[in-house]
Amino acid sequence: MREALxxxxxxxxxxxxxxxxxxxxxxxxxxxxxxxxxxxxxQLLHILQRPANFPVASALLPDLxxxxxxxxxxxxxxxxxxxxxxREDALILSYASFGVDAPSETFGAEMVLTTDAALKAHYExxxxxxxxxxxxxxxxxxxxxxxxxxxxxxxxxxxxxxxxA
Length: 165
Description:
There is one protein chain. The protein is mainly α. The chain has one domain. The protein is 55% helix and 12% strand. The strands form three sheets. Strands 3-4-5 form a three-stranded antiparallel β-sheet. Strands 1-2 form a two-stranded parallel sheet. A hairpin with a 4-residue loop joins strand 4 and strand 5. Helix 2 packs across helix 9 (156-164). The protein is globular and about 55 Å long.
């Protein structure tokens, strides 16, 4: 989201967008064209609504839906941190598995869009152990949490390849 917003600022100033910002902006626009529901954490929504950020973020705010913390979100975030995932990234990934969207009566998100190559590489590197740990945890939970899933991490480039392949 950060790179997409930076792209909006540069575009409004008439500047050329670096490829990373262009890809992030294009990916967000493609998702909106597909009428995909875009989720954000409450923390990110709060940052975007700050007066300094609002003029730029206002273009995307109507399309962003905050997830609220689900019952096992903090537990899973703690386990992700134990696996070497940073605090901020662990929280984002936990929202993707256990965040609740009350208006649409759903929880979690299928994918997380990231420009953080290090996060994606680490997530893929620990994927098998993470999946096993996640299954052990969710197997013990009641419905609907038992049906929670790990998100897929996608870069804007891989998302665009999926959408336009």
